C-alpha cells in the first residue's frame, strides 16, 4: 500500500463497508462526546457503513463501553465493541484447543473475554497454564506479576492486550499496561505478542467479526491508530479531535501516515480529493504546496508563501493541508525532507475559505 494520501470521489461511508473507530479522542474525550461524532456515525450508517469501536482499553467490559456510547448519543451495541482484551482472547483461541488453561493477569473484563473465547481461566502458575495473557488493572500487585513470571518461565505462551507504556489520568500520565508487562518481560527475557494497536491483530479480529471486505481505520493518534492501520494493510482516516495535530501529520514518518485527512468524523460523509504532483508542486483542488531548501511553501497569488515557525502559527485550508502533507512526505522519502523546526503549528480552517 502506498504511504501517501488516497482519493475518493464518493463519501468514505460509501467507499468502505466498515469503519474501525478509535474511541478516546475520536468519539469522546473522557465522559464528553466529541462534536459531530454521534450524528456523523448515524449518517454513515445510513449510507451503508457499519462502525466497530476498536480500543486498547482492556479493563472495561464491552457492555460498559456500549452503555457509555449510548449515554452520549453515539449508536453502538455490545457487538460493535472490540477491545484489546477481546482481541487477545481471540488470538489465543485461534492457537489453543477449547478449554485450554490460561493464566489471566488483569481486570475482570479480561477474564470475561478469555472465558467467552472458550478458554479456561486459571489463577496460578501451579495450574499449568499453557498461556499467560496480561492486561491493565490498577490493582495488580507483586504476587500477580510473580505468577505470570513463574508460568512464562515454565514455557507458557505470553500475550499482552497492548503495550501502551503510559495512560492518561486526571493527575497526569501514569504507568500503562506496557510498563507492567515490562516487569514480566525483564524477569523472563520473553517478549510478548501484543493484540492491541499499533499491532494489527485488533484490526484483523474486528474485520473477522464483521466479515467486512473494505475496512477503514479511523483514529486521532499517528503512532497507534494510524500505525496500526498501516500494519494491518488498510487505509486510515486521521481526525484532528485528539492527540496528533495537523503539523504532526505533515511530519509523519513512513508507517504512520494516514490515507485520508479530516477535521472530525464528518470526514466519513465527504469525498476526499487526492493531491497530484504537477512539475514540482503537489496540487489538491485550488491548493498547491512544495518543499524547497528544506522549507514548505504554498502557492500564493503572486509568489510562493514560505511557512516559517518563526512567524507563528499558520492558518490553512483542508486542501492546503493535503498538499502540504503530500509534499512533505514525498520529500522525506526522497531524502530531502523539511526541517522540522521550521514547520509552524498549523490550524486547519473550518472550511475552504480563509
TrEMBL record:
One of its GO terms (molecular function) is hydrolase activity. The keyword Hydrolase applies. Pfam families: Hydrolase_6 (PF13344), Hydrolase_like (PF13242). Coiled coil: none annotated. Keywords: Hydrolase. NCBIfam families: HAD-SF-IIA (TIGR01460). This is HAD-IIA family hydrolase.
Amino acid at each position: 500500500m502506498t504511504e501517501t494520501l488516497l482519493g475518493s470521489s464518493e463519501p468514505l461511508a460509501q467507499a468502505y463497508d466498515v469503519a474501525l473507530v478509535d474511541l478516546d479522542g475520536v468519539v469522546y474525550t473522557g465522559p464528553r462526546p466529541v462534536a459531530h461524532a454521534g450524528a456523523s456515525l448515524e449518517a454513515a450508517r445510513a449510507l451503508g457503513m457499519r462502525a466497530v469501536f476498536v480500543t486498547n482499553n482492556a479493563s472495561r467490559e464491552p457492555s460498559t463501553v456500549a452503555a457509555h456510547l449510548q449515554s452520549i448519543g453515539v449508536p453502538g451495541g455490545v457487538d460493535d465493541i472490540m477491545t484489546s482484551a477481546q482481541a487477545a482472547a481471540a488470538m489465543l483461541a485461534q492457537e489453543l484447543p477449547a478449554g485450554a488453561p490460561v493464566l489471566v493477569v488483569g481486570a475482570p473484563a479480561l477474564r470475561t473475554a478469555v472465558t467467552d473465547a472458550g478458554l479456561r481461566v486459571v489463577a496460578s502458575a501451579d495450574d499449568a497454564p499453557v498461556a499467560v495473557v496480561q492486561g491493565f488493572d490498577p490493582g495488580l500487585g507483586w504476587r500477580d506479576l510473580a505468577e505470570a513470571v513463574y508460568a512464562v518461565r515454565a514455557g507458557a505462551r505470553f500475550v499482552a492486550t497492548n503495550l501502551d507504556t503510559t495512560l492518561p489520568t486526571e493527575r497526569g500520565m501514569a504507568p500503562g499496561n506496557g510498563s507492567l508487562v515490562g516487569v514480566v518481560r525483564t524477569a523472563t527475557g520473553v517478549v510478548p505478542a501484543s493484540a492491541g494497536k499499533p499491532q494489527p491483530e485488533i484490526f484483523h479480529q474486528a474485520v473477522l467479526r464483521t466479515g467486512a471486505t473494505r475496512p477503514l481505520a479511523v483514529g486521532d493518534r499517528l503512532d497507534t491508530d494510524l500505525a496500526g492501520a498501516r500494519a494491518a494493510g488498510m487505509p486510515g482516516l486521521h481526525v484532528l479531535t485528539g492527540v496528533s495535530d495537523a503539523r504532526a501529520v505533515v511530519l509523519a514518518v513512513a508507517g504512520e501516515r494516514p490515507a485520508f485527512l479530516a477535521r472530525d468524523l464528518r470526514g466519513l460523509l465527504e469525498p476526499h480529493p487526492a493531491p497530484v504532483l504537477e512539475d514540482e508542486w503537489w496540487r489538491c483542488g485550488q491548493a498547491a504546496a512544495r518543499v524547497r531548501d528544506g522549507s514548505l511553501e504554498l502557492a500564493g497569488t503572486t509568489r510562493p508563501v514560505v511557512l516559517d515557525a518563526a512567524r507563528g502559527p499558520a492558518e490553512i485550508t483542508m486542501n492546503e493541508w493535503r498538499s502540504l502533507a503530500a509534499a512533505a512526505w514525498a520529500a522525506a522519502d526522497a531524502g530531502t525532507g523539511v526541517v522540522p523546526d521550521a514547520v509552524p503549528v498549523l490550524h486547519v480552517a473550518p472550511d475552504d475559505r480563509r
